[in-house]
């Protein structure tokens, strides 16, 4: 089976599961719209106060916040979805059967969280569309090619962390505390709700050990600044590429080690 057919099969399965819970499906859409109104409400209170700190991002706290929350949702998806699908496979008894098929391990790892990433992408695009249409969010001067390049690099960087969490799920059965810790630290240090300039200098440096920091800084410059060029965005892109160069091999190696260990010990299906 080709990668395209395999990916389509995984997406169709997850789509059928998601739409079978119709109330939850509708409520998630309502939650997204409510979140936009909440961000618009908050930006009315802090917009003037934060305007000076956001001059490099067109001075719009609402746009700053929308991008922060949107990118954080991709990080959360990367941290939780692969491990959640592995956990479900252990509970339902389908994980061992899946790994026994001819489908390669890289294909399985890509396809397990694929629907969740597509869902998060649709939600993020809706955030942008609704923000532009109803909340005067302005990205007309943005550098779209740079933003897409940064976005792709950010997804790969986030996925490398997701591989580590997925490996922990196989090796130790529970990885939620680690995922929550990474998400919480990223929320605090990554500049999701506020510019990094408000942090002390040493925390500013520490923040760049997390992939969300250069991802957010670069995307905000690319989409919100009308003066930032490729030379301004390049350091953030290079930081993401350096993170990928280190963490992606680590994530792959750790996941393979966890899988071999579980298969050797006969604990692959234990949960």
Question: Care to give the gist of this entry?
Answer:
With 271 residues, this protein is mostly helical. The chain has helices at residues 3-20, 22-50, 61-92, 95-99, 105-111, 114-134, 144-172, 176-189, 201-207, 212-224, 230-265.
Set down the secondary structure blueprint:
Blueprint: H1 3-20, H2 22-50, H3 61-92, H4 95-99, H5 105-111, H6 114-134, H7 144-172, H8 176-189, H9 201-207, H10 212-224, H11 230-265
Question: What would you say this structure looks like, in words?
Answer:
The chain is mainly alpha-helical and 271 residues long. The protein has one domain. The protein is built from 11 helices and no strands. It has helices spanning 3-20, 22-50, 61-92, 95-99, 105-111, 114-134, 144-172, 176-189, 201-207, 212-224, 230-265. Helix 7 runs antiparallel to helix 10 (212-224) and helix 10 runs antiparallel to helix 11. It is globular and about 60 Å long. The model has no long low-confidence stretch (mean pLDDT 85).
Search tags:
271 residues
Number of domains: 1
Query: What's the total count of β strands?
Result: 0
Helix content: over 70%
Radius of gyration: 20 Å
> Low-confidence parts, pLDDT < 50 over ≥5 residues?
none
Instruction: Give me the number of helical elements.
Output: 11
Order of helices and strands: HHHHHHHHHHH
Overall SS class: mainly alpha
Q: How does the major sheet shape up?
A: none
**Beta-sheet strand percentage?**
under 5%
Q: What form results from the Cα inertia axes? A: globular
Distance between the termini: 30 Å
Mean pLDDT: 85
């Amino acid at each position: 089976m080709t990668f395209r057919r395999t990916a389509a099969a995984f997406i169709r399965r997850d789509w059928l599961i998601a739409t079978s819970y119709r109330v939850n499906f509708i409520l998630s859409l309502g939650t997204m719209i409510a979140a936009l109104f909440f961000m618009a409400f908050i930006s009315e209170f802090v917009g003037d106060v934060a305007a000076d700190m956001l001059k490099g991002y067109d001075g719009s706290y609402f746009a700053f916040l929308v991008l922060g929350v949107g990118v954080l949702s991709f990080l959360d998806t990367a941290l939780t979805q692969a491990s959640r699908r592995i956990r479900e496979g252990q509970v339902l008894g389908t994980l061992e059967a899946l790994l026994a098929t001819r489908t390669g391990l890289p294909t399985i790892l890509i396809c397990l969280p694929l629907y969740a990433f597509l869902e998060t992408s649709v939600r993020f695009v809706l955030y942008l569309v609704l923000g532009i249409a109803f909340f005067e969010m302005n990205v007309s001067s943005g550098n779209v090619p740079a933003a897409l390049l940064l976005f792709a690099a950010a997804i790969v960087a986030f996925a490398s962390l997701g591989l580590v969490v997925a490996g922990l799920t196989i090796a130790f059965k529970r990885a939620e505390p680690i995922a929550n810790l990474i998400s919480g630290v990223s929320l605090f240090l990554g500049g999701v709700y506020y510019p990094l300039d408000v942090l002390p200098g040493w925390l500013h440096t520490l923040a760049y050990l997390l992939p969300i920091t250069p991802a957010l800084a670069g995307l905000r410059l690319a989409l919100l600044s009308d003066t930032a060029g490729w030379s301004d965005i390049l350091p953030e892109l290079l930081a993401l590429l350096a993170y990928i160069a280190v963490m992606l091999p680590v994530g792959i190696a750790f996941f393979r080690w966890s899988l071999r260990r579980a298969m050797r010990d006969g604990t692959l299906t234990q949960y």
